[in-house]
Amino acid sequence: MSTLPTTLQKWVAFLETQDVPVLRRTIQELGKLRPSAERLTASQLAVVILRDPLMTLKVLRLANSARRGRLGTEITSVEHAIMMLGAVPLFKHFSALVALEDLLAQQPLVLTSVLQVYSRSMHAAYQARQWAIQHQDIRVEEVYIAALLHDMSNIMLWLYAPQRAQEIRDSVRRERRYYGVAHEKIMGFSVADFRLALAAAWHFPEMLADLVDCRNAGIPRAQGVLLGVSIAHMAERGWYGAPMEATLAAMAENLNLPLETTTWLVHQTAVSAARHWQWYGVPPAAAWLPMLPGPWEEERLPDTKLDREGAVLAQKEGDDAVLCMMPNPVRLQQVMDEISAHLDGSLDLHDMMTLVLQGMHEGIGLNHIVFSLISRDRAFLKTKYVHGAPPGSPLRQFEVDLRSSNLFVRLLEKMQGVWFSPANANTLAPLIPPEVLKTIGAGEFFAMSIFVHGKPVGLFYADRKHGECSLDEHSYIEFKKLCVRAADGLGHLARK
């Protein structure tokens, strides 16, 4: 948008005219169902639609717009909407859907932010539905939909005013503001008013509008929606903090269940929601469940600014300008699967290593990756492939003398990995040769030796150094998994 709306009314008028995009996965799944549209049940089609907040919005909006002109009965569930509209007419009406990923292809930071809200909305919907089931609600889909659509205003800002959305998020994180306070300060009107105005413009049923209104928290069904949303938000910063514990205790009391049972239900529900993470391609909240209790390290934010269209406007200069890569589990799985599919020796060394480096960079989110091979005289590790290091970077000259005892010689004793971090720096730093330390610089890194047919052949090195990027346990696990898969692939190459 060249000029942003300035009032609540103008924002709503603008958004009311937008043909919002949907997930590419939604388009693909609907495409699979289209040939059998006449035989589909409403529930079969609803399963696909209800995994996409914006597709759910489009269907309910269409159904209620049409219904209001006839009998006036509000449509509060997707299944009801499908039965009222008919599957074949529905496919015809939505024959030219726009994919979210295509719309934001040139705005990767915005796309990731939208997908994070999508994933969180799905998690919130699952938690709210579980609450409704425990309360023996006979219309659980209504509660599910209300939680799924609760953050629609946030998604709209990321889609059509990413600069404003980023300002709100930064205010929440850096100034420790509540989202509602930050939203009102930057937008000039409350998020509650924005949400309700959009609900009216989009022909939300009155019942759903009431459920997404935070001012109705005293109503049991609305309370379930807000609890689901709260759990989904809190889980993104860890499952074991004081706010989450207090919320679970309040839920246990309300449900008249033991705290342990309530906690188990919430965790199991998070796992159920996470089974659909491929739709969104971002780590689900359930991924953090295995982490040990304790405070999380303060989140570090890159000094990246977006223009009004969501493009990167400016970042820190010099080395600190390196972008903190966002892990992409979908891309990582694609690489793992492709390596497995070519264990027949159909890839050469270059193609295999290209895949592995892409998996580490795009899938795990590592900035710099080096694969070094043991020299023929077995005296040195020498760089063979490099990703992420610019021309002239010392990493391109990565070399380790294997004739003296050091950390890398020890790694080559068997196939094993190491995460060099502040926790073990006092022990491991003396084992890093000075010339290697000069090459890789200070800070954390991953390294893992590669064995083929029981013999060491080389070593992977990777880091997220510079700027405000840091390593984490999940990335280390994925790094080791990909190294093992790479060793398997190299073993099959060696048989050619």
How many structural domains? 2
Helix coverage percent: 40-55%
Coarse morphology: elongated
What's the CATH C level of the largest domain?
Answer: Mainly Alpha
Q: How are the strands of the biggest sheet laid out side by side?
A: 5-4-3-8-7-6
The tally of beta strands, per DSSP, is: 8
Structure characteristics:
alpha+beta, Hypothetical protein af1432, Beta-Lactamase, 2 domains, six-stranded antiparallel beta sheet, 23 helices, 52% helix, elongated
Description of the structure:
This protein is α+β, with helices and mostly antiparallel strands and 496 residues long. It folds into two domains: 8-21 and 98-288, Hypothetical protein af1432 (Orthogonal Bundle), CATH 1.10.3210.10; 329-493, GAF domain (Beta-Lactamase). 52% of the residues lie in helices and 9% in strands. It contains 23 helices and eight strands. A six-stranded antiparallel beta sheet has the order 5-4-3-8-7-6. Strands 1-2 form a two-stranded antiparallel sheet. Helix 8 packs across helix 17 (259-274) and helix 15 runs antiparallel to helix 16. The longest helix is centred in the N-terminal third of the chain and has 27 residues, at 108-134. It is elongated. The termini are far apart. Residues 311-323 have low confidence and may be disordered.
